[in-house]
């Protein structure tokens, strides 16, 4: 226990898994926590004076199952192994931490999402900016950047790291702490010294084996150096291995991408659904036809990082257009991609010394298929495909170099032979040949002895404890020759050995242990030679990922009938026949009504959209946002045609937010998000606002909505393209009076007492909000509906402010029946109801019922 306490004291923030013989054991508080999470039985161990110590444990081979569970539950796992052979140890076996696993550094497939990167992030807040680094230890991705805080928040939301390292003793921006808490991101404090420039520089220089930071582009970049040094230190410290697969440091320029703030990412459901169960509600789910896990990750990256350079967007969309027109190439690509494994993560296993022979074999097979991908791409003309094909062609021969050494069937372990192909190594072949005749002798022993003894059921077998044996069932005991020596008795049989067998076994087993060592050496040599080429291999893997992402977008475009958008430098959105990609794909039977958008700075730049609830306002807003975004990814878009002036940011304020759990009221969230828009929108932005001002009293809400609309119209710096859906009809007069704004409505038709939603966008304002109508359709009791109509009439006539307590109180003081006793109002309401009736469609019984109801209500 003394040894345990020493190690525990060095890792106080971890759950310590302590190796004892074949078991991992946990003690004290760790045992209590782990027993609950892992479902282990808690026992106790008498620990002398300190009384009973809680204890639990499991066989070491179950760790693959238990460690990830612990990490997924938000804990850090410290793995303490015996680091010397217990047989050779004097006194207590030496033990040491061999790895620390936390959410951001786990390489275990059980908790990794194949189609999402697994990021660890480190931050270093400055006055107005923040230096940050992202690393994915599973693939070796490593990048650093510095940006204003809002841009970093956008990046944080897009990459959704699993863990964020923060320097000890530093105040963090509240928004980041809040974000981490709401997304269950582990915040790990790292001692300040690891952020010191000198120390950080050394860590980086040592890792990349460079003598100055200049070659990495970090010259003079103090904060970036500090933050990337800290993250690298943490990774190396946790993994306790080399991490040679981290081969370069990317200097990220967030300026290349459209800014998407966390609320837009969430509201537009790009890669994550608003509601966790709705996995099919994301744009990713509609566009994802990727075949490989790497391609899936790349596509996800593209979707959350739309481009803003027209040239780059066009390069991509041109490539997609070419693939869309080449179904044969698409078919070929699919076949080749299908056999390519997650090379990026396999290389990660190689670089961190975890790869087994199966991993290398998988890499070898994938490399050969990468050449096939290159061959398919070579018939295409787009410069992007040329470049990809060239990179992929460099895989030529590399796969065979691996495959010619390894067997086709491989074990999981690397120390027990069975890995190396005959013919791959002369020395190994010679060693095998030496015992070949003995092996054959054993192999043919069964047939020989069956014949000799005349026992057809005689078997020759092998087990680890007894070695080779001859098994004869008990009924044939009388046929056992004298040289057979009994070794073991089972239920129905006896097991024997002969002196000859014993001798043969000794020779084989000593030769085999030498063969296993030799195989292991050959395997390690192969692993090293693969690792030496890691940089090139990573580029091949990246080229596969990119090809797969192109493949996916092209297949989606073909299957879903998308078109290529024209993207231009400048402002304006022109969409014909646009549709919502997710709604249409999730509801194939829905007769979705396509709609147009036509906005430019010279004509209407702002749309004020009215229409009853359920008309399709939110859908129209979101589909416009998604079409613009898809165009800037370079993807084809769901429309008949689209011309999109590149936007720098998409802002959204739509729908109910899930931030209530953070203790903010809906209205507060709405205002925070709107404030962000009004502070940061530019004339190149796209702003989507849905039902602003709903969370407060009518006049408050109307006034706020009014002022926001005016500001976006009048302030040239904030002159964004804006789609503004509202239920405040009062605002339609405002939109009429503004030069760059127009009134639009989503059409509905009244049909008797029914509302028919046409879902079509038309110029002009909608004349009524139909709220009560929709409520009636939803089945609100007719008495409540009638009363609502009365109240509405009264409010409209007498201009009572429903937010004014005194006025409302006065209304409430009068008995309900008297309150609207004016014969005028009743007559008006009665007439309205009569107008809606369709006697020709009523049964006599319904007619009588209606008459009785009307009488009861209006003529008591
Ligand atoms: P609102 O924001 O006006 O309340 P929504 O956008 O939420 O309305 O749409 C309400 C419903 O109408 C949605 O369930 C959607 O499936 C359907 N809908 C919206 N737009 C269309 C359309 N263009 N064609 C067909 N159905 C639509």
UniProtKB/TrEMBL annotation:
Keywords: ATP-binding, DNA damage, DNA repair, DNA-binding, Nucleotide-binding. The keyword DNA damage applies. Residues 685-701 form the DNA mismatch repair proteins mutS family domain. One of its GO terms (molecular function) is ATP-dependent DNA damage sensor activity. ATP binds at residues 611-618. One of its GO terms (biological process) is mismatch repair. GO terms for cellular component: cytosol. The keyword Endoplasmic reticulum does not apply. This protein is involved in the repair of mismatches in DNA. It is possible that it carries out the mismatch recognition step. This protein has a weak ATPase activity. HAMAP family: MutS (MF_00096). This is DNA mismatch repair protein MutS.
């Amino acid at each position: 226990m003394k040894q345990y306490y020493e190690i525990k004291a060095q890792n106080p923030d971890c759950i310590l898994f302590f190796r004892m013989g074949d078991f991992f054991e946990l003690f004290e508080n760790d045992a209590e926590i782990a027993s609950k999470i892992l479902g282990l039985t808690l026992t106790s161990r008498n620990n002398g004076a300190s009384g009973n110590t809680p204890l639990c444990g499991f066989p070491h081979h179950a760790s693959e199952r238990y460690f990830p569970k612990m990490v997924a539950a938000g804990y850090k796992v410290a793995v303490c192994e015996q680091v010397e052979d217990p047989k050779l140890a004097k006194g207590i076996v030496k033990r040491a931490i061999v790895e620390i696993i936390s959410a951001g550094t786990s390489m275990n497939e059980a908790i990794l999402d194949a189609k999402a990167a697994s990021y660890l992030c480190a931050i270093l807040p400055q006055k107005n900016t923040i230096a940050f680094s992202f690393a994915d230890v599973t693939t070796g991705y490593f990048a650093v950047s510095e940006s204003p805080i809002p841009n970093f928040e956008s990046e944080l939301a897009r990459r959704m790291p699993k863990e964020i390292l923060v320097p000890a003793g530093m105040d963090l921006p509240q928004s980041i702490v809040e974000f981490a808490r709401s997304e269950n991101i582990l915040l790990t404090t790292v001692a300040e010294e690891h952020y010191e420039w000198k120390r950080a520089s050394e860590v980086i220089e040592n890792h990349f084996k460079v003598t100055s930071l200049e070659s990495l582009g970090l010259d003079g970049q103090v904060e970036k150096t500090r933050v990337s040094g800290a993250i690298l230190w943490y990774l190396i410290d946790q993994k306790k291995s080399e991490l040679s697969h981290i081969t370069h440091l990317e200097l990220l320029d967030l300026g290349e991408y459209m800014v998407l703030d966390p609320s837009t990412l969430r509201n537009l459901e790009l890669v994550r659904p608003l509601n966790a169960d709705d996995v099919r509600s994301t744009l990713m789910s509609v566009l994802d036809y990727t075949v490989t896990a790497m391609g899936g990750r790349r596509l996800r990256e593209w979707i959350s990082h739309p481009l803003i350079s027209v040239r780059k967007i066009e390069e991509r969309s041109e490539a997609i257009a070419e693939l869309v027109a080449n179904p044969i190439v698409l078919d070929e690509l699919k076949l080749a991609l299908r056999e390519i494994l997650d090379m990026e993560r396999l290389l990660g296993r190689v670089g961190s010394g975890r790869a087994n022979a199966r991993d290398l074999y998988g890499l070898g097979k994938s490399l050969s298929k990468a050449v096939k991908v290159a061959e398919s791409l070579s018939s295409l003309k787009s410069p992007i495909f040329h470049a990809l094909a060239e990179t992929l062609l460099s895989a030529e021969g590399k796969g065979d170099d691996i495959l010619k050494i390894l067997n086709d069937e491989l074990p999981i372990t690397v120390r027990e032979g069975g890995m190396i192909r005959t013919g791959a190594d002369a020395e190994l072949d010679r060693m095998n040949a030496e015992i070949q005749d003995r092996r054959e002798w054993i192999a043919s022993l069964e047939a020989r002895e069956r014949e000799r003894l005349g026992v057809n059921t005689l078997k020759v077998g092998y087990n680890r404890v007894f070695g080779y044996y001859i098994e004869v069932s008990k009924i044939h005991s009388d046929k056992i020759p004298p040289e057979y020596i009994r070794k073991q008795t089972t239920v129905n049989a006896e097991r024997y050995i002969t002196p000859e067998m014993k001798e043969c076994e000794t020779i084989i087993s000593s030769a085999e242990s030498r063969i296993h060592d030799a195989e292991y050496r050959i395997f390690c040599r192969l692993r090293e030679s693969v690792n030496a080429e890691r940089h090139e291999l990573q580029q091949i893997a990246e080229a596969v990922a990119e090809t797969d992402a192109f493949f996916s977008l092209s297949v989606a475009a073909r299957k879903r009938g998308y078109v290529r958008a024209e993207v231009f430098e400048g402002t304006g959105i022109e969409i014909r026949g646009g549709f919502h990609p997710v709604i249409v794909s999730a509801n194939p039977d829905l007769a979705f009504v396509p709609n147009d958008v036509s906005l430019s700075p010279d004509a209407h730049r702002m749309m004020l959209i009215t229409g009853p609830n359920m008309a399709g306002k939110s859908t129209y807003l979101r589909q416009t946002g998604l079409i613009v975004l898809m165009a800037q990814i370079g993807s084809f878009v769901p429309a008949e045609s689209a011309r999109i002036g590149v936007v720098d940011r998409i802002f959204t304020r739509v729908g109910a937010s899930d931030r209530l759990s953070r203790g903010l009221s809906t209205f507060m969230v709405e205002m925070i998000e709107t404030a962000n828009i009004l502070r940061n929108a530019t004339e190149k932005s796209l702003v989507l606002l849905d039902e602003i001002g709903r969370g407060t009293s009518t006049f408050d809400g109307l006034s706020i909505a009014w002022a926001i609309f005016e500001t976006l119209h009048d302030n040239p710096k904030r002159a964004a393209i804006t789609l503004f859906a509202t239920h405040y009809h009062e605002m339609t007069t405002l939109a009429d009076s503004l030069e760059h704004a127009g009134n639009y409505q989503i059409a509905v038709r009244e049909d008797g007492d029914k509302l028919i939603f046409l879902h079509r966008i038309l110029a002009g304002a909608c004349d009524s909000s139909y709220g009560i109508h929709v409520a009636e359709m939803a089945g609100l009791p007719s008495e409540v509906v009638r009363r609502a109509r009365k109240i509405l009439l009264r409010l409209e006539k007498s201009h009572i402010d429903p937010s004014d307590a005194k006025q409302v109180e006065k209304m409430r003081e009068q008995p309900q029946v008297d309150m609207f006793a004016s014969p005028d109002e009743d007559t008006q309401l009665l007439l309205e109801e009569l107008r809606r009736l369709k006697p020709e469609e009523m049964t006599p019984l319904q007619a009588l019922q209606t008459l009785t109801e009307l009488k009861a209500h209006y003529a008591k």
